[in-house]
Design goal:
Among the domains are: 109 residues, Ku70, Chain: A, Domain 2 (Beta Barrel); 45 residues, no CATH class; 28 residues, no CATH class. Helix content is 22%, strand content 27%. It contains 5 helices and 11 strands, in the order ββββββαββαβββααα. The protein has a 7-stranded mixed beta barrel with strand order 1-2-8-11-10-9-7. It starts with a strand and ends in a 17-residue tail after the last helix.
Length: 275
């Protein structure tokens, strides 16, 4: 796999050469093409100028920033290269904070950090110091022309850099309606806790699959096998209602949960150095 970024991590006067690699594998979307229904001919998009409707070849297309309505300034690759080029080479740790003090909504994209030549001891030192302190390093890094807030975390036997949203990017939770002045009966709360307890199990991420994608792939295969003919209509689902007897629904849920076959418990693995 090719590194998406190479540079160094610095904290204080310590500098560690590192390379960043994506920690997640993007699942390719099931893609559909637009077709003309009469002969199944693919429909293409064209790059058309707004002023006269004429198609524009790639060698006549430039990037521009709209600083006022219909007023643009052209920005070239050379212009972008002049923007804080030094910052693109370093992950500067600005401070250390407790992980539990950071809003989980701020984290959004993890990268594995591979240690570069000569940085082994400092890399291990930072990893173990973060693990033992229960803290993460808050930093800023420029990747692909954009500056990101980021956190350095110990992850298993290595370090991880996780990109973060800047706080102003998060929507204020007060903008959304939540139930107010609702009293929950003690009996209902007791049953809710009982239901949670009966449905509690060890975390096993391998059990969870993208069922919707699998169903779409199955449907497409059936269409291919049928020669493109229409498939039988899916059975209609009964419409639900928003008015429920919460106590009776909880009681039925507890009964159903208790009838589920018990899953075999797996032996606990040694604790790893995840943050």
């Amino acid at each position: 796999m090719r590194a998406i970024w190479k540079g160094a991590v610095s904290f204080g006067l310590v500098s560690i050469p590192i390379s960043l690699y994506p920690a997640t594998r993007g699942k390719e979307e099931i893609k559909f093409r637009l077709l003309r229904d009469s002969d199944m001919s693919p429909v293409h998009y064209k790059r058309v100028a707004e002023a006269d409707g004429k198609e524009v070849p790639w060698d006549h297309i430039v990037k521009g920033y709209e600083y006022a309505k219909d007023e643009f300034v052209v920005v070239t690759d050379e212009d972008m290269d002049r923007v804080d080029i030094e910052a693109t080479q370093t992950v500067d740790i600005l401070s250390f904070v407790k992980l539990e003090d950071v809003n989980p909504l701020l984290f959004y994209k993890p990268y594995y950090m591979e240690c570069g030549k000569g940085g082994d001891k400092a890399y291990v030192l930072l990893r173990d110091a973060l693990r033992d302190s229960g803290k993460i390093g808050i930093s800023k890094v420029v990747i692909k022309t954009r500056q990101h807030l980021a956190a350095l975390k110990p992850q298993e036997s290595g370090l991880m850099l996780e990109l973060m949203h800047f706080p102003e990017e998060l929507l204020d939770a007060s903008e959304f309606k939540v139930p107010a002045d609702v009293t929950v009966a003690k009996a209902e709360m007791k049953m809710a806790l009982q239901l949670i307890d009966s449905m509690t199990e060890e975390w096993n991420p391998e059990e969870y699959k993208d069922e919707y994608r699998e169903a779409v792939e199955k449907m497409i295969e059936a269409k291919i096998q049928s020669g493109g003919k229409s498939l039988p209509a899916a059975p209609k689902k009964k419409a639900g209602t928003n008015v429920i007897d919460l106590a009776s629904v909880l009681q039925r849920s507890i009964q159903e949960a208790s009838q589920r076959p018990a899953k075999p418990r797996r032996g606990k693995s040694p604790r790893k150095g995840a943050a």
